[in-house]
Structures are given as structure tokens and as C-alpha cells.
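Worked example 2:
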Amino acid sequence: MMIRFLTEAPRADAPLVLALGVFDAVHLGHREIISRAALLAKEHDAKVVAVTFFPHPREVLAKTPPVLLLPKEARIVLLRNAGADAVGTIDFSREFATWSAEKFCQMLWREFPHRIAGIVVGSNWRFGKGGEGNAAFLQKFFASFHVETLAVIEKSYQEKIISASRIREAIAAGDFDSATAMLGRPVALYGIVRHGFGDAGKLLAAPTLNLEVVAGVFPPDGVYAGRIMLPDGRFFPAAVNCGIAPTFGDRTRRIEAHLIDFSGDLYDKKVKLEFCRFIRAEKRFSSVGELKAQIARDIAFCREAAK
């Protein structure tokens, strides 16, 4: 099989509506495609399969790969939450990138013979070598198989099409309002909790978790109110520092978060960090005592903001 299911596959005789795309951010535009696929599936008593690509095509083809907004696991969860009954993936490679649009369509029909009731894509989506394939090509190819194809007009924000690149730019600029509006959910980083960089946490009486980021864009340096989702799904408010810890003379840019009212061992656990609001810029304090007092104020603010 060219398409591997990342979730439980629909039963072998179930008709399918395929939603095709990279879905790298599962933003409002991507969710609209899944939603329209779900409506079409209801008409045909079919199941929705979101077909995506791993790795991201630009990770394979671009000289400078994009920063991923989501790890694979989160993309799957969000696609399911958007209405996909199952998620399948195509392994993207340089060889796959040479396929013609026709070869790609033939592969889809071969993978699910006589089961495809519909195909839904974004109206600007392109596929096949050189991007030769589009929604019109899909419609022409699958017309003889009586497959209904639907091109969904891309959603816009502030009169520009929503895209993962726009979301990355907004986060990097600290424009959480725009990023959140385009995502339809809070801005987040995903990572693994690692051991700290020194004794600052103990010295300041505010132990922090140090996040090794695997997906998501760093916001501008500063202190933020946020919340951490643990592996068991629980959320805890957090005071988050993004930056270089100038008071301690460190130049390593990192993410540290103090979980409020939490105790336990999270080392090597995967967590999600959601940003709620910017509190203050990072600054160098004249003494550890001054920094300690400011951290106490930050934590009190974040605890109140989480209520």
C-alpha cells in the first residue's frame, strides 16, 4: 500500500471521501476542507479519510526546510477532531516528487478501487511534478469513475489567504492575536522535558521544566503566561520564559516554564506548551534577589490569569 493508515482504517467495504493536503498546521482553512469532506461523506454514507504527507514536502525539497508547527501525533489528533474518521499518510520522497499528476491519481484509485465516493481539496492545492495537477485535473480524471470532486475556496484572514507561513511569521513577530485567529486555537510549542541548564531554578525557588522543542515557532524573547498540557491530558498554568537568562550570563536561547501548583517528575515526557499572553520583556536584573522577587510576581500574575 502506498497510503499507510496512521489511525484505525475504515472497514474494507466502506465508501470513502478523501480529503487531500499537507495539512501542516490544521488551521481554519484546513479544517474547512475536512468539514466539507464530512458533509460530502454524509451524502454518500461514507467515511472521511484525511490523506497527508510525511515528511513535509519542503523538508525533502527545500534548501531551508520550514519550522514545523505540529508534530505528527498532534496533526493526527487535530485532523480527527476536525472530522476525519481516519488519517492516512504518503511517504514523501524525491522520487515521489517526480510523479506526474496522472500517476498520482492512478495510485489513489488503485489504493481504494471502487471505494472513492468523493475527493475534497483546497482550490489552490497542487500536486504532481512541477505542481501540474490541480482540482480541475482531479475532476477530469475521476469523472469516468463517478467520483465527486470538490475544491474548497481557501479561507482568508485580513484579506489574505491563511497559510502556515503566515502563521509562522505572526508567531515570530509576537502577534498572537493573528496567529490564534488563523489557527483557531492557541499558539503552542511541542517538546520533550529535559534536565535543566544549571542550578538557577533551585536558587530562585521556582523550579522549571526545560523544553526541548520539536515543533512550533519560538515567539520573541520575554516572559509569558501559558499553560502546559501533560501526557495524561491535564493542564497546569505556567510562567514561561523564552530567551537567554541574561542574569546568569547564559547565551543559549531556550524555553523554560514554571508549572504552577504542580509537583512530579516530567523528565523525558512529551508536553504541549500553550501561550496565553505576553507579560514582560526579558531583562538583566542587578541581583538574584531582585530576579527572585520578579519571578514571584510573574507566577502570581500567571496563577490569576489562569482562573
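The first strand starts at residue 3 and ends at 5. The CA atoms of residues 189 and 216 lie 5 Å apart.
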